[in-house]
Amino acid sequence: MTTILKMNGIRKEFPGVVALDGVDISLEEGKVLALLGENGAGKSTLMKILSGSYQPDGGSIEIFGKKVEIKNVTHARELGISIIYQELSLSPNMTVAENIFALYEPVKYGLIDDKAMNRQSQALLDELGISISPTALVKELSISNQQMIEIAKAISSDPKIIIMDEPTSALSSKETEILFNIIRKLKSKGCSVIYISHRMEEIFEITDSVSVLRDGKYIGTVETNDTTSDQLITMMVGRSMDEIYPVKDFPYVRDEALLELKGYHLQGKYHNVSFTVRPGEIVGLYGLMGSGRTEIAQGIFGMLKKEQGEMFINGKKVEVDNPSTAIKNGIAFVTEDRKHEGLVLSGSVYENTTIANLNKVLNKFKLIKHNKEVEITKRHVESLKIKTPSIYQTVNKLSGGNQQKIVLAKWFEIEPDILILDEPTRGIDVGAKFEIYKLMIELAKKGVGIIMISSELPEVLNTSDRMLVVRDREIVAEIKNPKETTQEKVMNYITSEKASHV
């Protein structure tokens, strides 16, 4: 068996933090290596070094036994290394083909050959089983389709090593299976894959071995077939986790409607939506991608204003025309797209944490009290275990999981009565997920009504007090005891034509 890559004693420091402390990993030709670790463990930093975005402060890299210094992204590509980043990096105003071949466009007579570029893009997309037009503008595609284009772009250079950083975070189960088929084809051609994911079922389905990092240090490597998820979690967090989901021992605080929707409707987005949420109740909203689950949440928050229907909060009829009126009525919305809708990436940790409720940090002259900003932010950094060298760090320098925690902190700070969480644990490690589940329960104890949307069906079943199943932009089933329901039953509701209440 040929070793294609060795990274030995890799070290990387940022101001106030050692991101990598002597990390070793190796990769065999035609194999898939999973790279596991909690948020902030150093996974993305290590891969940015391998892909040429960062320079290491120590250590060495060998490719096919030859020591190399990867100077930049272009040099990495020349060495046969390609990366799919956790956050989308496409140009929204360019076409699919233009993004796939950006900086490497086919040329004819000194000019970009658009016909050849579109033809080659179509051939690549067809080979990968991706049904997207090469002439479509990226900004018109769904987040999941944009992720598929990221994958196609990374593969277009025919790499020897491809790094996939949370590649399925925005994908449906069908699209995930397409990706797995792509990985199998890559393996058959001798291409090696480094696969970063927090989804254990994916690790066991598609990888050959697993390397684990913790707090910037290398913990060990095991063969996938010789380990269990419990063993991997123990390696990741340094302790055993007896329970993945904390116990919520109350269904609600008061048996009355905190939020009630009656016939909420917006043509093409959500249709005749009616349900209630009680104080302290966690209501799960589950459906496949494109089912309308996020659009329902956006309707409640005023992002997609309803055409028909009524909303009642504590029995009083309210009109929510936009997010501003939603917030005034005690509704908060943690969006699934933290990069574009949830954060000011160039802003600091403290600025992002307090931005949604500036009244808390203003004095009587309407000037910001910085000591109050610091106090609030430090409280959330501690409670959410946000890994940052400083509250003054810009959030674009933090890992995806820590960015997500800051989005949560921002909305927790306005102390909402109704909290909508859209994919709150996407891209977050198992230890951090547990912390967020506990925070949800703490908020519920205070009487907050929570609506949680997730692509992970086990998560919805195990954290919800009641569950609503969405299909074709309608609620087609209500499940009163999710923890006693099987995944198969839920999928039957999604594929069945008959609505159910169980």
UniProtKB/TrEMBL annotation:
Domain of life of the source: Bacteria
Transmembrane annotation, as ranges: none
Presence of the UniProt keyword Metal-binding in the record: no
Topology of the protein relative to the lipid bilayer: Peripheral membrane protein
Keywords: ATP-binding, Cell membrane, Membrane, Nucleotide-binding, Repeat, Translocase, Transport
Keyword field contains Endoplasmic reticulum: no
Principal subcellular localization: membrane
One cellular component term from this protein's GO annotations in UniProt: plasma membrane
One MF term in the entry's GO annotations: ATP binding
Gene3D superfamilies: P-loop containing nucleotide triphosphate hydrolases
Residues covered by the ABC transporter domain: 5-240, 253-497
Compartment annotation: Cell membrane
Name the record gives this protein: Monosaccharide ABC transporter ATP-binding protein (CUT2 family)
